[in-house]
Specification:
The protein is mainly β. The protein is 5% helix and 26% strand. The protein is built from two helices and six strands; from the N terminus they run βββαβαββ. The strands form two sheets. Strands 1-5-3 form a three-stranded antiparallel sheet. The longest helix has 6 residues, at 64-69. The radius of gyration is 21 Å and the shape is globular.
């Protein structure tokens, strides 16, 4: 494990770890060794996050081996990883943030590379479970007469948002969606 940062961060009941990982497809190795990477935390009591059986937002083990075996990280693109720490580490203190690689069968010739960005440990992060969504617009009874027809839908809110949620109600035989394009006026 490689130590990235020495810190002193207490873990509360709502603390969340998040980061963005870009595992690179190294040498066209279709075993995707770079996806066997995770951010690990060292606690002041000597334990590590990887030893506490952490799960990511998809309930895949949030360890380096778990992320690789779970095939949750896609190579050659940014992947957002989120781990709720409070349920498994509340009361502990983080003393170091580490980069962790763990792939069964890796040899000295195995190459893993990529980028990690936006590592964040938030004491009281915003919930993204739908309980605090702001409705930006709603449409009902819209019909599209032709296949592949496009229609713009304007929203009145000019605020900045990190995430958007789209809800479409209707049977699979009545709804087909090929693309959503979010545009902003300069």
């Amino acid at each position: 494990m490689n130590r990235l940062f020495n810190v002193k961060i207490p873990v509360g009941k709502n603390t969340r770890l998040s980061c963005n990982i870009f595992p690179e497809l190294s040498g066209n190795d279709l075993q995707y060794p770079s996806t066997y990477t995770a951010v690990n935390l060292l606690f002041s009591d000597g334990t590590r996050l990887s030893g506490l059986k952490p799960l990511d937002a998809y309930e895949i083990p949030a360890t380096a081996l778990g992320q690789g075996v779970g095939k949750v990280l896609y190579p050659n693109q940014w992947n957002h990883v989120r781990v709720e720490l409070g349920s498994i580490a509340a009361g502990k203190t983080i003393s170091a943030i580490q980069l962790y690689y763990d792939k069964d069968g890796a040899t000295a010739a195995t190459v893993f590379q990529g980028w990690i960005d936006d590592i964040a440990i938030e004491a009281n992060p915003k919930r993204i479970d739908g309980s605090s969504w702001s409705e930006l617009g709603a449409r009902t009874g819209r019909e599209f007469k032709n296949r592949r027809e496009t229609k713009p839908f304007k929203i009145g809110n000019s605020g900045a948002y990190q995430m958007f949620r789209l809800t479409i109600r209707g049977g699979a035989d009545k709804v087909a969606l090929s693309e959503i394009e979010l545009l902003a006026k300069p």
